[in-house]
Specification:
There is one protein chain. This protein has 14 helices and 18 strands. Strands 4, 6, 7, 9, 12 and 14 form a 6-stranded antiparallel β-sheet that branches.
């Protein structure tokens, strides 16, 4: 596929300071000042404690308390009133099944649905984990912002007389069952691809933490040797780095080398370029690197002792070097012996069962730009990661480029379908879910004037939904979950949007992550309750149409 040139959207210098907080954590306050009246708690300015109607959406089938060994949480992790409880009571009003783009009225942040039918083989222990303290605060904030939440659309892929034998999300839900029942022996990996909405790792931080609270934490997963920009935090990178230049798939002109699944590679700009990672008891690690001509070797060492050296052939292939880590090791160094060496990523995780979420988001990304992933690297790296859920946070940049007339809906459909097919072919045992874009307003809004919804936003959401379901993936409508048309204005009034009115910040990001995690957990607890009807369109129909040939300009 020919990929159109796409700008990184960072040419306007005035946005750099704003985007520092939006794209990568650590530059902006995690608790920004806001104008919405919120009650503070000890040591934070978070939202007030949850109201009764704002609890985590409950399982439609309440069960007794789970055995402690299968719970995934210790009593110390629970609040006193939650100790021994298996789930919150159901909120008074369950969310209806979402339509394509309609905006529901305000209500509790719920994604619960009544249980009328069940898939056989379902775990007997499915009950929602107790609501975490942060989730409680965010549910209260959702009520104040009139963000009702929503349900995941989970199409049935193998129907049978008594229900559904397998839905789009069954592989992920079954993996959660294994973690809960103690039969899983390895981590359950979630691979989250997307744009700048997740590139700062804050939305997926919440998803990761909420899943880990109920099913255990198995470590950090895929990391970068340095940051994607000269600013931002280091929660998903080496703790200390020097001598690296980042290249991303969101650049205006395609960089000289294709990408692995991280969508980023770092080039050594000097001999002895180094990334140092703080180890957390991981037993082994993996280095992803690009074998470019004349680049020299990469050296992996722990606490000063060399563990491995790469042996370049100069053929341009993406390669993997794995290594065992000695018990008690504290620091892992990845060092380039000369200029030009390329690192695509470093994987560090534990052997124990639990949740690992790989953040694979890149600023300016859309489905078209993900065509810059190298096919061999995509296959090899996804097979190594063996994810049980492929998440795609896309649509914001697509709707922007539709507004600018630099793409069209047939291209949006075609390129999303191509991305889903490539990823699913590389990870055939994985579930798949597309998360649609958040609310967005039109470019060129005048100061003091009412905000106007971005044209083509709802059309882009509808297109993504149809393609996702036709390709056998689940779909979550983030736009309706956050409150539909006008919800961005409410977030902005509350102080949870950057001045560009494109990127959320602070607890605005956290709330979006909470909406996604709530929907996933409720979908797991209620699997098979209301099977989604099968679409009549075929895969070819959903992705039909040729590209317009127009180029698209990136959105920061």
């Amino acid at each position: 596929m020919k990929v159109p040139d796409v700008s990184r959207g960072l040419r306007r210098a005035g946005l750099l300071a704003v985007l520092a907080g939006a794209l990568l954590p650590g530059c902006g306050s995690r608790t920004p000042p806001h104008r919405f009246p919120l009650t503070t708690t000890r040591g934070t300015d978070s939202a007030p404690p949850p109201e009764a109607s704002a609890a985590r959406p409950a399982s439609a089938e309440a069960t007794s308390a789970r055995p402690a060994a299968q719970d995934g949480m210790t009593s110390a992790q629970r609040s006193p009133d939650e100790a021994g409880a298996s789930a919150r009571p159901a909120p008074p009003e369950a969310a209806r099944e979402p339509t394509a783009v309609d905006a529901p009225s305000g209500g509790p942040a719920s994604a619960s649905v009544p249980a009328t039918a069940r898939s056989t083989g379902r775990s007997a222990f499915r009950a929602l984990p107790p609501t975490t303290e942060r989730a409680g605060h965010l549910h209260a904030l959702a009520t104040r912002l009139r963000a009702p939440g929503g349900a995941v659309e989970d199409p049935c892929l193998e129907p049978r007389d008594t229900g559904c034998a397998r839905s789009a999300l069954t592989p992920f839900f079954s993996a959660l069952d294994g973690l809960l029942e103690g039969t899983a022996k390895t981590p359950t990996v979630v691979a989250a691809f997307g744009n700048s909405l997740i590139a700062g790792d804050r939305i997926v931080d919440v998803v990761r933490d909420e899943l880990a609270a109920g099913f255990g934490n198995a470590g950090r997963g895929a990391l970068l040797v340095d940051r994607m920009a000269p600013y931002g935090g280091r929660s998903r990178t080496a703790a200390v780095s020097n001598g690296w230049e980042p290249r991303t798939l969101g650049e205006l002109h395609a960089p000289p080398h294709p990408f692995g699944i991280t969508g980023v590679y770092h080039v050594a700009t000097e001999g002895r370029a180094r990334g140092r990672f703080k180890l957390e008891g991981e037993p082994r690690g993996t280095l992803w690197w690009k074998d470019v001509k004349g680049a020299g070797r990469l050296v992996v060492s722990v606490d000063g002792s060399v563990l491995a050296r790469t042996e370049p052939r100069g053929d341009g292939a993406s390669r993997t070097t794995s290594f065992d880590l000695p018990a008690g090791a504290k620091w892992l160094d990845v060092t380039a012996e000369g200029k030009g060496a390329i690192v695509q990523g470093v994987v560090l995780q534990k052997d124990a069962p639990g949740i690992v979420l790989d953040m694979l988001g890149v600023p300016s990304a859309d489905a078209t730009l993900y065509a810059r992933l190298e096919e061999d690297a995509l296959k090899a790296q996804l097979q190594q990661r063996d994810p049980k859920l492929l998440l795609f946070f896309l649509g914001g940049n697509e709707s922007k480029r539709l507004e600018w007339k630099r793409t069209d809906l047939p291209t949006v459909r075609q390129d999303l379908a191509a991305l889903l097919r490539r990823a699913r072919a590389a990870a055939p045992g994985s579930a798949c879910m597309v998360v649609g874009p958040m609310d967005a307003v039109q470019d060129g809004h005048a100061e003091g004037k009412p905000l106007r919804q971005r044209p083509f936003l709802e059309a882009a959401i509808q297109a993504e939904r149809e393609v996702a379901l036709a390709e056998g993936c689940g779909f979550f409508n983030l736009y309706t979950a956050m409150g539909g048309a006008g919800s961005l204005a409410r977030f902005h009034q509350a102080g949870f949007m950057h001045e560009d009115l494109v990127h959320p910040r602070g607890q605005g990001l956290d709330l979006l992550g909470q909406l996604v995690s709530d929907a996933l957990l409720a979908g797991w607890a209620n699997e098979g309750a209301v099977p989604a009807p099968a679409l009549t369109s075929s895969r070819e129909d959903a992705s039909a149409g040729s590209g317009s040939g127009q180029t698209a300009e990136a959105v920061p």
